[in-house]
Specification:
With about 200 residues, the protein is α+β, with helices and mostly antiparallel strands. The protein is built from 4 helices and 5 strands; from the N terminus they run βββββαααα. Its main location: endoplasmic reticulum.
Length: about 200
């Protein structure tokens, strides 16, 4: 699940807005200025910090380590778009911490929509990632054919594609099982209960 979210100015680490559960420790923003990758993930024990930087603003999400990275960055992207729309022109003029604390309501609402990984919209987001992987694989193969890469490069690419294919199949099976359980789980439970009652009735009545 998503534990907390913080938005901060990059060049000085000034917190602009945040939403944290009780007893949650906020992410350190003092080193945001040293972040060069627009999207970075840092594991810390059972948690992972996901950091997205855009237009001088850092968006930091603290999530459970097993929470899908795709969903974490999708959450931060949604917040970035909304925050930029509301406060994009005022970030540099902010002089005190949490100057845009009213944005907390947007963070809370967005967090709730991302908490359940098995929710339909989140499964759709994960499915999009699998589609993206397929497109990347297809593009890579076409690039190799067009450029006439050497045999050793083909071998390396083949190994990479094989690994991606195995991950794709594994993730697809998980998504399918989740969808089946969401669709038929209630019927399976009801059926199992009915079978138990029928067995007890036949056995003891």
């Amino acid at each position: 699940m998503v534990r907390s979210v913080m938005i901060a100015r990059v060049h000085d680490g000034l917190p602009l807005a945040a939403s944290m559960d009780e007893e949650e420790v906020p992410a350190s923003v003092s080193t945001l200025g040293s972040v060069t990758d627009p999207m970075t993930s840092i594991e810390a024990g059972q948690f992972t910090f996901h950091v997205a930087v855009s237009d001088g603003v850092g968006y930091i999400g603290l999530c459970d380590r097993l929470y899908p990275k795709k969903l974490a960055f999708s959450l931060l992207s949604d917040l970035q778009k909304e925050f930029s729309t509301q406060f994009g022109g005022m970030v540099d003029s902010a002089a005190r911490p949490y100057a845009f604390i009213k944005f907390d309501t947007v963070i809370q609402k967005t967090k709730r929509s991302y908490q359940d990984v098995r929710a339909r919209q989140n499964l759709d987001r994960l499915q999009e990632e699998l589609v993206d992987v397929t497109k990347i694989m297809t593009t890579s193969i076409n690039d190799v054919l067009e450029r006439g890469s050497k045999l050793e490069n083909m071998s390396l690419l083949s190994s990479n594609l094989s690994a991606e294919s195995r991950r794709y199949l594994r993730d697809t099976k998980k998504l399918n099982l989740m969808m089946l359980w969401r669709t038929y789980g209630a019927f399976i439970i009801i059926g199992a209960v009915l079978l138990v009652f029928i067995y007890v009735y036949i056995r003891f009545c």
